[in-house]
Amino acid sequence: MNEFYIRFLAPVIPQTTAQLFQLFDNAVQTRVDRLHLLISSPGGSVFHGLSIYNFLRGAPFETYTYNFGSVDSIGVVLFCAGSRRFSVPHARFLIHCVQFNISGQVAFDEKQLEEHLKGVKIDQENIARVIADTTGKPLHKLEEDMTNRTTLNPQQAKDYGLVHEIQSQLFPADARMAVIGEPMQQQQPFMVHAATPFTKG
Q1: Which of 65, 99, 124, 137 has its C-alpha lying 20 to 30 A from 149's C-alpha?
Q2: H or E stretch at 26
């Protein structure tokens, strides 16, 4: 079997997403059968996180995902892309609502505020549906847990339906592996990518 590993120790932002998609494209071109995505991430952009999830779910290779540290915020959606999902014994998961930050002096009229609020609600619903579909939990339960900022250890995540197996081993000694990483920043909430001066963070 043609297998490939990616270690993703980074926030979900445009730069790291572009690096991931280059590796995904290479996996398709080289006819990889199974992609292993090792994740430790503080979260980041909803736009990019959902795009990664949807691509992996529709890709012509099988995806396994692993939590090797912390999988927070939109990182949980990336983790949900795995048909098999693993966690090391000493890790955590954090599920919470979509939030946004406004940088600088930005003015909005009523319609613009309504538009952004609708966007946040749709993003939050999409995230809740992904996790609900993955875990088999009812949607209202996920929405409640997001509001309550739910933190899970590996055993709790397994009981929750996020994790299939808890194990220390992540990859074989001869694994072909690419690395995406940059210095971990302070934990970020879900972010909605926007091309306007309005940024959601």
Answers
A1: 65
A2: helix 14-29
Looking at the structure of the chain, the number of domains it has is: 1
Separation of alpha carbons 113 and 108, rounded Å: 6
Q: Could you list the residue range(s) of the whole structural domain that residue 37 is in?
A: 3-181
pLDDT by 10s per residue, the chain, length 201:
999 999 999 999 999 999 999 999 999 999 999 999 999 999 999 999 999 999 999 999 999 999 999 999 999 999 999 999 999 999 999 999 876 656 667 777 777 777 767 767 888 999 999 999 999 999 999 999 999 999 999 999 999 999 999 999 999 999 999 999 954 444 444 444 333 222 333
Q: Decide: 192 and 98 in contact? Cβ < 8 Å.
A: yes
State pTM to two decimals: 0.85
Closest CA to 135 of 80, 56, 72: 80
Q: Write the CATH number for 31.
A: 3.90.226.10
Q: Is residue 161 domain-resident?
A: yes
73 as an active site residue: the answer is yes
- Kindly name the residue from 36, 45, 87, 96 that is annotated as catalytic: 96
83 flagged as catalytic = no
Q: Single out the catalytic residue among 45, 70, 73, 87.
A: 73
In a domain, 127, yes or no: yes
**Residue 43 domain-assigned (yes or no):** yes
- The bridge status of strand 177-181 relative to strand 165-166 is unpaired
